[in-house]
């Protein structure tokens, strides 16, 4: 199923997939970077900043809700361009500027997207550059991958407002236990330290409960390693302090076997299903939004419904990186008693760049049936916007439904996006669907296809998200959109158990050790009691 808008909770695959390597010596001649004059750098830097300001409504959200002023960051970075600025330094300035937008869709194109552009976007006329002009960008991607990031990997996790190391490890002959709380970095309180990384890491997640930014991989940027070392202070569960002074090109040795990954695409290949006879629950782990997996769940549902009574259904999308909305449509239409629909209100900047891109002017908005300047919801003060109001039927019940009128529970963690985040969001609009777990902690909602632009002299290619979702908001903070009806977090002890256990989606683990599935049991028992 395809819609005018695609629901995304920030596409992180491209930014999070970057591997950190050591700062290199000057590149060999075959990889030599092109050289620009100071005048060219300044001119196209102004082009970069102007384009982001005109296209991105996310920077307005960041300024008015989160206190992140993109213009101020950009002005400071521009001052670093001078007669002696090397191309290497200039690329770091561009990278920091894109990071300052604090939007997972406002970023450089990486190698994967460059390959996609050459194979699909350029032949289809979807971008304004040709294949030959992408060669510089491949060099930039390689250089930034090697120079902007460290090599360190600590497998940190953020839960219940704190950072912990998930696995025990050793470094330079000293052993460190699992579950230590990180309290300081380079002598600063960890939360204040991370709050100052706006230019170095993006997108930082937003902990709405504690009203602060965070990210488990905040230690990736090489620039935070003073004299090549990051000083980290931990406190273990017996309140003993442990000091880790790690070099940016070093790695630690884990002291336990890691059997499961907690993050995006933690399980991507197979569907896991169970029928819990005593509870009458059909459970399905949907690892990715691929239509063949949706077909598999439907077939297994048919077999269970033919032989057993089903009181409720659990769809587990934890770690689901998204894909096609058609995936969940395939089986939900057999379960839903009412159409799953949503009236949406999305906003875009009313700027010269967006007017040109979307072929509109003030009169065309005023005279439109679905566009308006007055959406009836709070608006940003720092940017004039126009709004699109439309209604979508995401799932229409099948005439040949299963004999089912129970609840459909959606289990989610913070590592969902794209159509997986779509399914979570739709649960807010349907009494039959109930979301349980964690929010993605990134700006979500209905977003449009990102806009791709190439800078004129360097041929640096970047993308910008042109749209934010104002659906149902009462205050500007609500633009964040991501919600969960029954919040359930993992205690650090449970996260460690999930990491070292073999069958975390097996019946026994779900019943005894999974806090989100146990919440389903609690809600079902409460419903029976009432």
Question: How would you summarize the topology of this molecule?
Answer:
Blueprint: E1 6-7, H1 13-16, H2 38-55, H3 58-66, H4 70-78, H5 87-100, E2 107-108, H6 111-121, H7 135-147, E3 156-159, E4 162-165, E5 169-171, E6 174-176, E7 181-185, E8 188-189, H8 190-195, E9 205-207, E10 212-214, E11 229-235, E12 241-247, E13 253-254, E14 272-276, E15 281-285, H9 291-307, E16 312-316, H10 326-332, E17 340-349, H11 352-358, H12 362-366, E18 371-372, E19 385-395, E20 408-412, H13 419-426, E21 433-437, E22 446-447, E23 451-454, E24 461-464, E25 468-469, E26 486-487, H14 492-500, H15 507-513, H16 515-529
Parallel strand pairs: 15-16, 16-20, 20-21, 21-26
Antiparallel strand pairs: 1-22, 2-24, 3-4, 4-7, 5-6, 5-13, 7-8, 7-11, 9-10, 11-12, 14-15, 17-19, 17-25, 18-19, 23-24
Helix pairs in contact: 2-4, 4-5, 9-10, 15-16
Features:
30% helix, six-stranded mixed sheet, disordered N terminus, 530 residues
**Residue windows where pLDDT falls under 50 for at least 5 positions:** 1-29
Secondary-structure-based class equals: alpha+beta
Tell me the helix content: 25-40%
Mean pLDDT: 90
Main β-sheet: number of strands, strand sense, barrel status? 6 strands, antiparallel
What is Rg? 24 Å
Q: Name the shape in a single word.
A: globular
Query: What share of the residues does DSSP label as strand, in percent?
Result: 15-25%
Q: First CA to last CA: what distance?
A: 38 Å
Q: How many DSSP E strands?
A: 26
Number of helices: 16
């Amino acid at each position: 199923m395809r819609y005018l808008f695609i629901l995304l909770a920030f596409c992180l695959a491209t930014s999070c997939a970057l591997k950190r390597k050591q700062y290199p010596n000057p590149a060999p001649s075959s990889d030599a970077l092109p050289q620009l004059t100071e005048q060219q750098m300044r001119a196209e830097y102004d082009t970069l900043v102007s384009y982001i300001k005109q296209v991105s409504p996310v920077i307005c959200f960041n300024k008015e809700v989160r206190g992140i002023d993109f213009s101020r960051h950009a002005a400071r970075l521009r001052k670093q361009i001078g007669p002696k600025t090397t191309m290497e330094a200039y690329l770091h300035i561009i990278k920091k500027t894109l990071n300052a937008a604090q939007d997972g869709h406002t970023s450089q194109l990486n190698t994967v997207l460059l390959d996609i552009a050459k194979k699909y976007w350029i032949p289809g006329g979807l971008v304004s550059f040709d294949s030959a002009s992408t060669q510089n960008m491949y060099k930039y991607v390689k250089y930034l991958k090697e120079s902007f990031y460290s090599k360190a990997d600590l497998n940190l996790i953020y839960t219940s407002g704190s950072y912990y190391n998930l696995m025990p490890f050793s470094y330079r002959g000293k052993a460190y236990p699992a579950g230590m709380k990180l309290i300081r970095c380079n002598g600063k309180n960890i939360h204040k330290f991370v709050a100052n990384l706006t230019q170095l890491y993006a997108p930082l997640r937003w902990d709405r409960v504690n009203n602060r930014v965070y990210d488990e991989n905040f230690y990736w940027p090489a620039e935070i390693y003073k004299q090549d070392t990051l000083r980290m202070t931990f406190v273990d569960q017996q309140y003993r302090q442990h000091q880790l002074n790690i070099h940016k090109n070093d790695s630690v040795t884990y002291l336990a076997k890691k059997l499961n990954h907690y993050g995006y695409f933690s399980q991507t290949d197979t569907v896991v299903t169970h029928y819990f006879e005593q509870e009458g629950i059909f459970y399905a782990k949907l690892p990715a939004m691929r239509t063949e997996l949706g077909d598999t769940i439907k077939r297994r549902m048919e077999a269970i419904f033919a032989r057993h009574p089903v009181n409720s259904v659990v769809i587990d999308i934890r770690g689901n990186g998204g894909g096609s909305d058609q995936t969940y449509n395939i089986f939900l239409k057999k379960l839903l008693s009412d159409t799953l629909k949503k009236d949406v209100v999305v906003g875009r900047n009313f700027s010269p760049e967006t007017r040109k891109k979307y072929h509109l002017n003030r009169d065309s908005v005023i005279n439109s049936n679905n566009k308006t300047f007055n959406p009836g919801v709070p608006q940003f003060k720092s940017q004039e916007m126009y709004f699109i109001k439309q209604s979508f039927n995401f799932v229409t019940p099948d005439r040949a439904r299963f004999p089912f009128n129970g609840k459909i529970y959606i289990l989610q963690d913070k590592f969902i996006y794209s159509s997986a985040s779509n399914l979570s969001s739709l649960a807010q609009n349907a009494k039959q669907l109930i979301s349980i777990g964690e929010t993605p902690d990134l700006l979500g909602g209905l977003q449009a296809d990102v806009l791709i632009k190439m800078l004129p002299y360097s041929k640096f290619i970047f993308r910008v998200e042109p749209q934010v979702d104002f659906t149902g908001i009462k205050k500007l903070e609500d633009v964040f959109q991501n919600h969960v009806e029954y919040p359930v977090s993992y205690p650090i002890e449970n996260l460690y158990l999930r990491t070292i256990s073999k069958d975390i989606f097996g019946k026994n683990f779900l019943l005894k050790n999974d806090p989100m599935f146990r919440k389903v049991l609690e809600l079902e028992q409460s419903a029976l009691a009432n």
